[in-house]
Each structure stands twice: as C-alpha cells, then as structure tokens.
Design brief:
metal ion binding; two-stranded antiparallel ribbon; binds 2C-methyl-D-erythritol 2,4-cyclodiphosphate; binds ligand L45E5XJ5; 7 strands; MECDP_synthase; lyase; 160 residues
Length: 160
C-alpha cells in the first residue's frame, strides 16, 4: 500500500545580471538591481517548488519535462512548470498539504513581498495561503549575484 504522506524537496539557483527582470514565487520583484539569467522566466522559487512536488513521488526533475534546450521553454512562465508538476502529483493520487520555501538573495529585501509570494504559490497549488511558509535569507555578501531557493512540500494521499 502506498504511504499516506510523502515529503518532497527541491532547490534551484540562478546567476543574476543587471538589466534582467527578477520574478520569485510568481511575483515580479520591483527595483531589483539584478535579474535572473535563465532559459525560462528564471523563477527560482517556482522551480524549487516544482522539483519538490516531483521529488516527493520520485518523478524526476523539471529539466526532464521542460528541457532548457527546448525553444518552447524560452521565457516560459514558471507557473506552467508548477501546474504540470501538480498534475503529475495528482495523477499519482496525492495532493500538496503545505510548503516551506527559503529564498536566499542579498538585494533587495523581500519582506514586503512575503504575503504576495505566499498567496501566489498557494493559488498555484489550490491551497490556503496559510499553508505556504516563506522565509528569506541573505548570503551575507558571499553570493551577491546569485539567487537560491529551497522548498519542501508535504504530499498526502487523496484516498487515505
Ligand atoms: N532578500 C532578503 C534577505 C533577508 N531578508 C530578511 O532579513 C533578515 C536577515 O537576513 P539574514 O540573511 O541576515 O539572516 C531575514 O530574516 C529576512 O527576514 C529579506 O527580507 N530579504
Ligand atoms: C526551467 C528550465 C527550462 O526552461 O530552464 P531555466 O529557466 O534555465 O531553469 P533551470 O532551473 O536552470 O532549469 C530547468 C529548465 O528545465
């Protein structure tokens, strides 16, 4: 019999450069001095979330479903990646229960966006926003041109 609960974990990192947009958790970051270098929209938080969803059921990682060599993935809205991962999770008979996200970024301060990021990620997973915990850290200047996101997700069997 399959387990009633499973844990998923995902990470992502992108190099940052001037003159690019920065999007995190589906929310544009205003006044970001640097933005993500990526094939898609470079949303490290949603990439970590999608990988967490997939890893909880040993479904691989987002690169298998959305290769960074595919022309159709260029500038892709990462909400599409999360939607696909969620569809695969549901297809295996599970649903997300709660998410914990940590974003490491030196600048700008993301605290003012915490609620918007939690709300958008919850919306993508059809969860109440109270089920998405969002934490921010700096790299203490060790990686100023770098964004990193880490996410855990608890998955519950749909028919326990
Ligand atoms: N981009 C960021 C990074 C951090 N914060 C907030 O600052 C606090 C201190 O960060 P440390 O890395 O020095 O521990 C952290 O707890 C966050 O609340 C932020 O808002 N945006
Ligand atoms: C999302 C994909 C595909 O567009 O590309 P990137 O935006 O570069 O992101 P990354 O997390 O490096 O790899 C996953 C890729 O499959």
């Amino acid at each position: 019999m399959s387990a009633p609960y499973r844990i998923g974990y995902g990470e992502d990192a992108h190099r940052l450069e001037a003159g690019r947009p920065l999007v995190l958790g589906g929310v544009p970051v205003p006044h970001a001095p640097l933005g993500a270098v990526a094939h898609s929209d470079g949303d490290a938080a949603l990439h970590a979330l999608a990988d967490a969803l997939l890893s909880g059921l040993a479904l691989g990682d987002i690169g298998q479903y959305f290769p960074d060599t595919a022309a159709e993935c260029k500038d892709l809205d990462s909400a599409v990646i999360v939607a696909r991962a969620l569809e695969l999770v549901r297809g295996r008979g599970y649903r997300p229960v709660n998410v914990a996200l940590v974003v490491t970024l030196d600048r700008p301060k993301l605290g003012p966006l915490r609620a918007a990021i939690a709300r958008r990620m919850a919306e993508l997973l059809s969860l109440p926003e109270t089920e998405v915990g969002v934490s921010f850290k700096t790299s203490e200047g060790l990686a100023p041109a770098h964004v990193q996101a880490r996410a855990t997700v608890l998955l519950a069997r749909l028919d326990p």
